[in-house]
Write a structure and sequence with these properties.
The chain has helices at 26-34, 58-68, 88-97, 107-117, 198-205, 213-218, 222-236, and strands at residues 16-20, 37-42, 53-55, 76-79, 121-126, 136-138, 151-156, 174-176, 179-181. With 245 residues, it is of the alpha/beta class. It has a domain at 16-88 and 104-162 and 210-235: Rossmann fold (3-Layer(aba) Sandwich). Helix 2 packs parallel to helix 4 (107-117). The longest helix has 15 residues, at 222-236. The protein is globular, with a radius of gyration of 18 Å. This is DNA methylase.
Length: 245
Amino acid sequence: MTQPLPIRRATDPRPRLLDLFSCAGGAATGYARAGFAVDGCDIVPRPNYPFPQHHGDALAYLAALIASGEIARYAFVHASPPCQHGCALTVGTNASQGWGGSHVDLVAPTRALLDATGLPYVIEQPNGRAKLRKDLTLCGEMFGLGVIRHRNFELGGWSTEPPAHRPHRGRVRGYRHGRFYDGPYVAAYGNGGGKPSIPELQAAMGMGWTDVREELTEAIPPAYTQWIGTAALAVLAPDRAGVAA
């Protein structure tokens, strides 16, 4: 099947980043703040995505960019493949209760294609059993956010010193086994059970441009990728490090 032409934009002095499985742009916004020009790709139309976005299968799109040579327009790739195969909820509570179905592990095929690009990259996953090298683990407390939201990142073709993890200041607000607990963080997943309102979730994640709960609960806080993007530019393009979009 012929792939649509890739996104093209006017010349931009900023290094260009390809954001795969891009959802509503949490990761993309952080990279843009760090100094990248960003293009996204997601199989689901995301009108709230704040940057140019290709609608289609992310791995098929990446393969087409590699085959056509168009991948050379990019300096860096970020990928957040769907995590249902290895996330803690799927392999824990859901599996024990017989909920949910089978899920395909996309981390390995994503890595294989990213290695084929020859570009530096990041693969992101939540805690769980996904076969991911945890070069970085970031947490909302590191950035003063109202969520914990641990996320793991594998770095391909580059490296940086991981930041120190900060002790949490308390509990995540919500119900646990019928009992309500208060705390300085909100639960950025699911619905009900004392979960935050949309405005609370927007504030806690630092994502005011979307009011879709699913997009907010699936996102990476922009603060995480702003930190990663700044670190990457310091290694790959020192003259661009710390330049805001």
